[in-house]
Task: inverse folding
């Protein structure tokens, strides 16, 4: 019941809000805030129930009579936590929207409508218990969130919106294909039934399963921002309103991750190839995102690329979970196979190392959601005050804005993985996962000794990417809050604006979230959270975040970051007089280089060639008129023969010339030149309907006779 | 006996109604509307009385020599098609009243429009392939005047092309019709005949000729060009006939040929299957691509119809029961969706007088209902879940995966690519309508508005059906499953 409310209530709220908005704007805004906070309370109640009930009584909801295979929801630890995170993000961003849109209150009915609809759909995904339900809500939120990107209706926003929409639809379809491939093999899409179905379906071929897995990975990856389908991410964020960016980056990317995580945990835990693919794609995403962020000179674009990079960290964690699990499962599965028992999949079956990796992944998801909420809202505070995002323009804006400075600084500490802050714990766990993979190399089939070499490389990329995170965050922080603007008049304007740049509500949002980073960085807090989410009680008991082994990894990463900042950013990415430069080559853009031409030029061109072979307007459509001419020619021959015959008859038997002339005139109509032919056709068509009518009367008589025949028996 | 007469009357009534409209001219527009709508609704009631009475054994009404008979029956597949058109006709007739308001010669138009209804029902209830052929041919003839309705250069050309294609196709189809009737003069039987006593290659050749012959109306490439050309006809015609009745007759005839005349078992895995399946796959991809490049609103939708018809043929030519069910489902669902899309396109053209996609910028803010309905249809057609288009795509893909041959997987990939194109070409219209670039909002200060209730009601109805079938597809799919297993 609670789940149903949580999922479906926001849809009602959205529509109600739209109707209210047509009457009064003030009450609409208030209603939106109230409804998101109501949702938050519902989510908290649900989470409390889950914590109290333990693993035994997981709230669930099945609606079996609708849709293709019914809808299933359940709320275990992870899902409940994410339901709360989602509701929290929404409540805070809606609160923040109040101030953000004060100056430009256009199209806000639409904005709030789609915000609330997306909330419902996101809760639907986060609580879904089968892949089909996930898919349904995933598609809904893809389409509803698209309106956020286009909200501003500028040229750039429309273009980014198209990119977003079509990547989303592409993702949806590829995911759809994956679902079909999986369904064809397992005959079920309920997460909990997948391990059983895969174990009992004897002839499941690994190749087909892998194909299904890759389709699903790509599909969800489109929303998560995974390489190579990340292209919408750096484009959509800068043009979307800041609260929407926070949601896109903080929650919607996690929706993609949720899908990947769930399918991986239930169906692909023993597929080492799949694990390697996820790991490698994750690594590329992680590094590429960090690199793009380092080069970017736009505040929101940097944050967007940073999101991409953090998603890469999470994917790396998922990949490592699979590898570690497959590594340790080798012997266990064989034993299970001999005893004839089916392997139990899912979170419960994870080994110790894999569970550690998993908790790192899940913690990093939560951390990243919170971090991006804070950082994007801080960026929103900049935008709503000075309507600019370019680093050179906003430089020096925050020199005297203390609260904003504190919040942003906490965000910097959190995301860069400074010890005692939230990002540190999760990143260290992910790092641990990679190193334990290296330690276990050779003990199983999943990670061979050669694999360990690759893992070494990945470990270094991991550390460097962490360093990049520190570097680009430092770049942002120093630019906005430390340096002076090069335009003195502008700097004076910024300074004169005073230290107050947000109203009370927005301050609560930004500062409140940033204080969470400290809380989430403490072991009792994140330990309990990890136990709740993974369902393994005390999974992190053996984890010592402040041991030298762990801290050294963090310090190496921070050291690389400091080096990158001082050497690369201060020298290569800034001109002599200290302006920030965009050194990223403009042509190097996967979308413009490959995707757009592929879809708008190459494929249609190729198929156009096929069309011209098949005679679109060329050969075959001429065929119909040609047939008519052929027909006419036959008629002509026939008529000439008849003419000749008549002529012959007239000359011999019937000597009457007048009729002959008429006949000739009539026949000549058919074979005269072009205009005459048309004229004839017009006459023909004029009489045509009459002829048709006659035919129909004939039909009628015919059918009447038939009725009579039946009546008589 | 009673039901047999009912069946004949339901075919006859609209034909008689149409003819009487020409002979006894209605005194006013009002009277004409009344007579048309009354005929359509009465016929629909008759049809539903027939359908709810369940199946009916074949009965001969006239017998020529050599076992050539005119034969009617009511079976599952016929019921499906009849139910579909009988619900659509009254609604689209209502739509046509408003659409044709300012036109000349409306009596002429409505006479043929109503007659077409009866002929289509004849196709639905035909009991053997010869009867099917007779009504199929009549359907071609009776719709030609509708295509040439405007009687300008363009539509006369379209009429000639249309006539050339459909009559030529029917002529090709006549060959297998005659041959099969000669050897197996019985009524349609699910599972068909194996024709063991004929040379197998000859049987396959007959099938392929029949496929492409009937395939003209189903717009299989390379015989599709008439359909986009024919979109110059008035919208009620393009919507009801060239998105549902006429084109689905082609698919329907192919279904009859594949599952009720020839046995799927003798076709499965032969070159005949590869050729026909291949043609369907090429068509569905290439025409989707063509639709993407088309700028005329209705022609774009017409190409989309070409593509979607081949989805159905893909399902049918997989030659497994899953595929058959999926094909039927797509026939039904696509009908509903495409109807609402065409009617919306017509509403826009009627209200604004413009017909190109780039002229839509910002129209969604003025014609709120029309474009809201359009968007639902577009989403459904591109396969977004909770709308009915998704269900049939899901079934089609599952059927392809179950089949598991190389060609069926290629087909799946092409189908998904086509679905992606479909999203591009339908949704870009919605995006234009709702999110015009600020400087380019051409309808900003115009008096463009939604059409009247007679046009909106049908569109709203089809949209509602679209959502309903998408959320609760169970009963319909069960029924289709029973058709495919012959237990209706």
Result:
């Amino acid at each position: 019941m609670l789940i149903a409310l949580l999922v479906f209530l926001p849809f009602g709220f959205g529509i109600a809000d739209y109707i209210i908005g047509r009457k009064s704007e003030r009450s609409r805004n208030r209603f939106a805030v109230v409804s998101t906070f109501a949702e938050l309370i519902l989510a908290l109640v649900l989470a409390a129930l889950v914590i109290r009930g333990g693993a035994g009584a997981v709230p669930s909801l099945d609606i079996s009579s609708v849709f293709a295979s019914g809808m299933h929801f359940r709320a275990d630890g992870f899902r409940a936590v994410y339901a709360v995170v989602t509701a929290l993000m929404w409540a805070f961003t809606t609160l923040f929207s109040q101030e953000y849109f004060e100056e430009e209150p256009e199209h806000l009915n639409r904005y709030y409508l789609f915000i609330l609809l997306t909330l419902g759909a996101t809760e639907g995904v986060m609580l879904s218990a089968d892949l089909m339900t996930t898919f349904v809500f995933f598609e809904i939120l893809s389409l509803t969130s698209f309106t956020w990107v286009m909200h501003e209706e500028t040229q750039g926003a429309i273009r980014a919106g198209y990119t977003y929409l079509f990547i989303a639809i592409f993702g949806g379809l590829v995911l759809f294909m994956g679902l079909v491939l999986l369904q064809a093999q397992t005959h079920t899409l309920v997460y909990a039934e997948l391990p059983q179905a895969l174990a009992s379906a004897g002839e499941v071929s690994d190749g087909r399963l892998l194909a299904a897995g890759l389709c699903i990975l790509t599909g969800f990856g489109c929303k998560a921002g995974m390489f190579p389908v990340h292209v919408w991410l750096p484009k959509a964020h800068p043009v979307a309103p800041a609260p929407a960016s926070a949601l896109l980056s903080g929650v919607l990317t996690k929706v993609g991750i949720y899908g990947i995580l769930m399918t991986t945990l239930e169906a692909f835990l023993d597929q080492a190839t799949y694990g390697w693919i996820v790991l490698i794609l994750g690594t590329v995403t992680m590094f590429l995102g960090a690199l793009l962020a380092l080069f970017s000179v736009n505040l929101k674009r940097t944050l967007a690329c940073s999101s991409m990079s953090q998603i890469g960290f999470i994917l790396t964690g998922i990949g490592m979970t699979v590898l570690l699990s497959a590594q340790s499962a080798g012997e266990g599965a064989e034993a299970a196979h001999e005893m004839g028992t089916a392997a139990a999949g899912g979170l419960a079956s994870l080994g110790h190392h894999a569970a550690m990796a998993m908790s790192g992944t899940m913690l990093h998801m939560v951390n990243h959601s919170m971090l991006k909420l804070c950082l994007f809202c801080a960026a929103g505070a900049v935008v709503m005050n000075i309507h600019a995002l370019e680093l050179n323009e906003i430089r020096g804006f925050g020199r005297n804005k203390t609260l904003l400075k504190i919040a942003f600084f906490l965000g910097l500490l959190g995301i860069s993985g400074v010890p005692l802050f939230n990002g540190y714990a999760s990143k260290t766990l992910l790092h641990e996962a990679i190193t334990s993979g290296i330690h276990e190399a050779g003990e199983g089939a999943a990670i061979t000794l050669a694999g360990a070499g690759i893992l070494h490389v990945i470990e270094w990329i991991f550390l460097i990417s962490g360093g990049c995170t520190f570097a680009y965050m430092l770049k942002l922080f120093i630019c906005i809050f430390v340096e002076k603007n090069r335009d003195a008049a502008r700097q004076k304007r910024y300074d004169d604006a005073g230290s107050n740049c947000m109203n009370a509500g927005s301050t609560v949002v930004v500062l409140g979230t940033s204080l969470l980073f400290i809380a989430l960085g403490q072991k009792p807090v994140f330990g309990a959270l990890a136990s709740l989410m993974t369902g393994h009680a005390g999974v992190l008991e053996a984890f010592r975040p402040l041991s030298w082994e762990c801290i050294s990894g963090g310090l190496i990463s921070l050291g690389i970051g400091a080096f990158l900042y001082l050497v690369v950013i201060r020298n290569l990415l800034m001109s002599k007089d200290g302006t920030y430069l965009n050194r990223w080559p403009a042509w190097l853009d996967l979308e413009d280089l490959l995707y757009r031409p592929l879809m708008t030029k190459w494929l249609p061109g190729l198929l156009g060639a096929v069309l011209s072979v098949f005679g679109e307007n060329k050969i075959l459509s001429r065929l119909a008129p040609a047939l008519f001419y052929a027909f006419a020619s036959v008629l002509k021959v026939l008529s000439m023969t008849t003419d000749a015959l008549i002529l012959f008859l007239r000359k011999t038997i019937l000597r009457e010339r007048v009729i002959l002339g008429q006949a000739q005139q009539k026949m000549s109509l058919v074979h005269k030149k072009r205009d005459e032919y048309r004229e004839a056709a017009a006459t023909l068509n004029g009489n045509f309907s009459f002829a048709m009518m006659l035919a129909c009367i004939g039909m009628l008589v015919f059918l009447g006779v038939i009725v009579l025949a039946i009546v008589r028996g | 006996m009673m039901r047999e007469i009912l069946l004949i009357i339901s075919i006859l009534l609209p034909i008689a109604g149409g003819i009487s409209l020409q002979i006894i001219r209605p005194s006013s527009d009002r009277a004409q509307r009344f007579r048309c709508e009354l005929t359509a609704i009465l016929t629909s009631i008759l049809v539903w009385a027939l359908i709810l009475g369940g199946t009916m054994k074949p009965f001969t009404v006239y017998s020529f020599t050599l076992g050539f008979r005119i034969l009617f029956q009511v079976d599952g597949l016929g019921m499906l098609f009849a139910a579909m058109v009988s619900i659509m006709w009254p609604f689209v007739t209502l739509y046509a009243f408003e659409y044709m308001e300012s036109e000349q010669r409306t009596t002429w138009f409505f006479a043929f429009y109503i007659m077409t209804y009866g002929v289509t029902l004849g196709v639905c209830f035909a009991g053997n392939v010869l009867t099917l052929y007779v009504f199929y041919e009549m359907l071609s003839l009776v719709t030609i005047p509708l295509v040439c309705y405007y009687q300008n250069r363009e539509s006369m050309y379209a009429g000639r092309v249309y006539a050339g294609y459909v009559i030529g196709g029917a002529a090709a189809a006549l060959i297998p019709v005659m041959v099969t009737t000669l050897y197996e003069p019985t009524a349609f039987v699910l599972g068909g005949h194996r024709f063991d006593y004929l040379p197998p290659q000859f049987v396959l050749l007959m099938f392929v000729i029949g496929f492409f012959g009937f395939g003209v109306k189903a717009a299989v490439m390379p015989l599709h060009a008439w359909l986009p050309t024919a979109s110059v006809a008035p919208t009620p015609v393009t919507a009801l006939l060239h998105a549902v009745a006429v084109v689905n007759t082609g698919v329907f005839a192919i279904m009859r040929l594949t599952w009720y005349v020839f046995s799927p078992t003798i076709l499965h895995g032969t070159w005949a299957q590869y050729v026909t399946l291949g043609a369907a796959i090429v068509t569905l991809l290439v025409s989707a691509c063509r639709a993407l490049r088309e700028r005329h609103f209705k022609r774009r939708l017409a190409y989309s119809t070409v593509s979607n018809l081949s989805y159905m043929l893909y399902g049918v030519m997989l030659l497994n029961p899953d595929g058959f069910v999926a094909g039927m489902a797509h026939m039904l669902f696509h009908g509903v969706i495409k109807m609402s899309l065409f009617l919306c396109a017509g509403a826009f053209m009627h209200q604004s007088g413009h017909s190109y996609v780039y002229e839509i910028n910002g129209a969604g803010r003025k014609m709120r209902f029309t474009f809201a309905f359009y968007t639902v249809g577009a989403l459904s057609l591109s396969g977004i879940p909770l709308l009915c288009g998704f269900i049939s795509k899901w079934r089609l893909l599952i059927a392809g995966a179950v089949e598991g041959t190389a060609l069926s997987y290629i087909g799946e990939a092409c189908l998904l690519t086509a679905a992606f194109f479909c999203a591009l070409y339908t949704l870009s219209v919605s995006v234009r309508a709702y999110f015009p670039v600020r400087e380019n909002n051409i309808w900003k200060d115009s008096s463009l508005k939604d059409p009247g209730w007679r046009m909106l009601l049908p569109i709203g109805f089809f949209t509602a059906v679209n959502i309903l079938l998408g959320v609760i597809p169970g009963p319909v799919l069960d029924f289709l499953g029973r058709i495919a297993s012959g237990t209706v």
Notes: The longest helix of chain A spans residues 299-339. Confidence is low (pLDDT under 50) at residues 333-344 of chain A. Residues 289 and 308 of chain A are 5 Å apart (CA to CA).
